[in-house]
Design a protein that fits this description.
With 291 residues, the protein is mainly β. Helices cover 10% and strands 45% of the residues. The chain has 2 domains: 6-152, Immunoglobulin-like; 156-288, Galactose-binding domain-like (Jelly Rolls). It has helices at residues 2-19, 206-209, 243-246, 264-267; strands spanning 28-34, 38-40, 44-53, 64-71, 77-80, 97-105, 113-123, 129-130, 142-150, 159-160, 168-170, 173-180, 184-190, 196-203, 213-219, 222-229, 235-241, 251-259, 281-288. The strands form 4 sheets. Strands 2, 4, 5, 7, 8 and 9 form a 6-stranded mixed sheet that branches. Strands 10-13-18-15-16 form a 5-stranded antiparallel sheet, with no helix packed on it. It is globular. It starts with a helix and ends with a strand. The mean pLDDT is 90.
């Protein structure tokens, strides 16, 4: 009787194993390339994504998002950079290679060491993930690379001086933050005495001022860069500043001059009570002296 019981149990397990659903078929292989192996927290890392769609791919009817998880040594997700690929997944075709670049701002996170970058595709409606070809952790999440995170003390620290409004956030979402400048704003930082790259992610309201907003960056009264804000879309600009342009002072004062500042109460609907002078809206600003 006991032997029959164990025989039946073994058969039941075997049947269960045989009837387990097969793994989903992958639609593409994924490759992520980083522009550096180590980066200071609070800085920027460049990431190149490549999805090589398999020949047997039959097409998707839904547009999936790309998830990008930065994971610590214990496997915990520290932060994410989920986004839509530049070409929607419903338009991917067999044999195609979808390749694009992104600049990712790393937050001031309390972790030093190796971060693993895991990527994949998921549905915005329910979170279902798609299978890819790659190093899967068992949850359809694939290793994209590893990055050594360095202390914030090695970064160029910015001091917001005159001409800045208070930090603002979207209610309930502290991950999205910004500051408005006035017509003239200043930041200062210790002179690294080397060439630097200024990252500025910002938008404006050219639609309210009748045309493009001109922005000039100045150090000691000398222009070091200029650009136009022609749409209301957030744009990331990379502006090189040479060691010579930084000057000889120990502290650098960088002026941001906006041609096209406005007061919302005077430009939009009458019930808007915002009487602040606004220039451009800055989401991220960073001086990178690490090359």
């Amino acid at each position: 009787m006991v032997r029959k019981f164990w025989t039946a149990l073994a058969l039941g397990i075997a049947v269960s194993a045989c009837t387990a659903p097969p793994p989903p078929d992958p639609i593409a292989s994924v490759k992520v390339t980083l522009d550096r192996n180590e980066v200071v927290l609070g800085s920027v890392v460049g990431m190149s994504f490549q999805f090589s769609i398999l020949e047997e791919h039959v097409g998707l009817t839904e547009d999936y998002r790309v998830f990008v998880h930065f994971v610590d040594a214990d496997g915990e997700v520290m932060w994410t950079d989920d986004h839509n690929p530049p070409q929607s997944t419903s338009n991917w075709i067999p044999g195609q290679i979808v390749k694009y670049d992104r600049k990712v701002f790393l937050p001031m996170y309390p972790y030093i060491g190796t971060a693993t970058i895991r990527v994949g595709l998921y549905s915005a409606n329910g979170g279902e993930r798609l299978a890819l070809v790659g190093d899967d952790d068992g949850s359809l999440s694939y290793t994209g690379g590893r990055l050594e995170l360095l202390p914030q003390s090695e970064n160029v620290f910015l001091i917001f001086q005159d001409g800045w409004h208070d930090l603002e956030v979207i209610p309930g979402d502290n991950d999205v933050q910004w500051r408005w400048t006035m017509a003239n704003a200043t930041i200062s930082f210790r002179n690294p005495r080397s060439d630097v790259l200024l990252y500025l992610r910002a938008d404006g309201r050219p639609d309210l001022v009748g045309g493009p907003q001109g922005v000039v960056l100045e150090i000691e009264g000398r222009e070091v860069a200029r650009f136009l804000i022609e749409t209301t879309q957030v744009e990331l600009r990379e502006l090189p500043i040479s060691q010579e342009q930084l000057g000889d002072q120990n502290m650098v004062e960088l002026g941001i001059v906006v041609d096209g500042a406005f007061i919302p109460a005077e430009r939009v609907e009458a019930d808007n009570g915002d009487t602040r002078e606004l220039g451009i809206r800055v989401f991220d600003i960073l001086v990178d002296a690490h090359g």
